Amino acid sequence: MGNEKELLNVSKATIGRLPAYHRYLQEKLAAGEKTVSSTAIAEELHLSAVQVRKDLSAIAREAGKPKLGFTVADLIADIDRFLGYDNLNDAVLVGVGGLGKALAGYSGFKHYGLNIVAAFDADPARIGTSIGGIKVFPAEELARLVRRLNVLIGIIAVPKEAAQGAADELVKGGVRAIWNFAPVHLNVPANIAVKNEDMAASLAILSKRLAEILNNEK
Amino acid sequence: MGNEKELLNVSKATIGRLPAYHRYLQEKLAAGEKTVSSTAIAEELHLSAVQVRKDLSAIAREAGKPKLGFTVADLIADIDRFLGYDNLNDAVLVGVGGLGKALAGYSGFKHYGLNIVAAFDADPARIGTSIGGIKVFPAEELARLVRRLNVLIGIIAVPKEAAQGAADELVKGGVRAIWNFAPVHLNVPANIAVKNEDMAASLAILSKRLAEILNNEK
DNA sequence: ATTTTATCGATAAAAAATTATCGAAAGAAG
DNA sequence: CTTCTTTCGATAATTTTTTATCGATAAAAT
After folding, report:
1. Given A189, B37, B48, B68, which residue has the most CB atoms within 10 angstroms?
2. In what order do the strands lie in the sheet with A114-121?
């Protein structure tokens, strides 16, 4: 019975903002505040209050109260539930060079529902080592081990030349979602979700905004 | 005279896609192909051909030719010019822990017009070292050095507790754009551009897509 | 107890982004 | 040389996302 509605009808844009709300709410919770208004959230995050209300109404179970706003703890619980922060998804990491090492060492992913259970690398010098408690296995074992562990999420942090190969192996192992940090477009079957962490795109947007700002001043 | 039009009228969504086009075009160039059609680009990148044409028409100087498509080399040049890939912007990096080290060591930023000229860290053990040719200075010198070097872009890769402080120092030093990798919302004056590299948001979107895919199957 | 104020949710309007349609042009094929 | 095919650019339609408006409600203030 019935939380299908939730998956639908919530726009990607909204989903993308939820983690920011979540962080803000955690701050408020830590500060001991019981309720928070859409106006306050909006001001802090540079959004409009209407948008905040709309986003929250899409995923919150309890309504906000006039004059008081929303209950902080309830909202956090709602976002946790909606984004699945309260039940961990296993993932594997491919590539433990500079970026991969950083990702493996970042303990925060657990709070976001992501649990890295194994890492892989082609470099023999790295195999057998451990980073942040995650063991590094040889690349050859990727597909086999992924299948055995029944992991559905793969994180690609290899140099761009190796990225497509890594993706192929992940798919072969039965992964259904790939978080790609390599600056290349991956070719995968249609029923596999790919999210490119495209830093070049972020940078492009940032530098255009910078250009605008400088332009408005002169 | 006259490239003001370019800054305006190009949507953020379009700008965000340009780096992907750029990468695809580089591949085609390397493969020796002279021209490429919007259909081909669209298919590879899982977009619609109309959208590709619209995006390109917003920034390209030459029109595409019926039956042939666009000239690969021209398009690359157009994107280079539009995104500023051909003239480097200086930047400083704050924080050379795991992620900061990875960013400093990534040589690819130069291709995206970003030149990291100095790094800063609070940990004495790191000061004076060099990562990827970038020297690490003490955090206390941040504002002063940024001002002296006349750097306009700051990259924050410190733990979240230190991020707001880093932002404050960057702003004090005269930075006008901040690329924030720490998972916190930064409070800065209105005339400073902030781009949050929000991995939690990416992850949220990815896992929702995964959930959808799995849902559609059963 | 009444008024004032801050806030909400719902609905409507506007803006932005994507997709569809179609005539025209340029090369390829016959 | 004519026809066919691919592709373009422009315009229109649609969809999605954001913003505006407004009556209702609950707490706070008078």
Report:
1. B37
2. A130-131, A134-138, A114-121, A89-94, A153-156, A177-180, A193-196
pLDDT value of position B207: 93
CA distance A148 to chain B (A): 19
> pLDDT, tens digit, for every residue of B71-88?
999 999 999 999 999 999
The pLDDT value given to residue A17: 97
Q: What is the DSSP letter of B179?
A: E
At A26-59, the pLDDT tens digits run: 999 999 999 999 999 999 999 999 999 999 999 9
State whether residue A19 is helix, strand or coil.
Answer: helix
Å between CA of A172 and C1' of C19: 34
With an 8 Å Cβ cutoff, are A204 and B112 in contact?
yes
> Given a cut of 60, is residue A121 above it in pLDDT?
yes
Helix, strand or coil for residue A91? strand
State the Cα–Cα distance between residues B96 and B113, nearest whole angstrom. 21
Residue A49, number of CB atoms within 10 A of its CB? 14
Residue A1: pLDDT band with limits 50, 70, 90: very low
Residue B28 main-chain phi, psi, to 5 deg: -65, -40
Q: Decide if B189 touches A, using CB distance below 8 A.
A: no
**B113 Cβ partners below 8 Å, 6+ apart?**
A203, A207, B83, B84, B85, B86, B87, B88, B89
- Does the reported pTM lie above 0.85? yes
Q: Report the pLDDT value the prediction gives residue B1, as an integer from 0 to 100.
A: 39
Residues 6 or more apart whose CB falls under 8 angstroms from that of A18 comprise A55, A59, A79, A82, A83, B201, B204
Query: Which residues contact residue B164 at a Cβ distance below 8 angstroms, ignoring those fewer than 6 apart?
Result: B184, B186, B187
User: In this complex, is the C-beta atom of B135 within 8 Å of any C-beta atom belonging to chain A?
Assistant: no
Whether A85 contacts B200, CB under 8 Å: no
Which strand C bases fall within 7 angstroms of a protein CB? Answer: 5-11, 16-21, 24-28
Nearest protein residue to the C1' atom of D6, measured from CA: B67
Q: What is the pLDDT of residues A140-184, one digit of tens each?
A: 999 999 999 999 999 999 999 999 999 999 999 999 999 999 999
Mean per-residue pLDDT for B77-101?
Answer: 95
Strand partners, B196: B180
Question: Least CB-CB distance to B193: which of A15, A197, A206?
Answer: A206
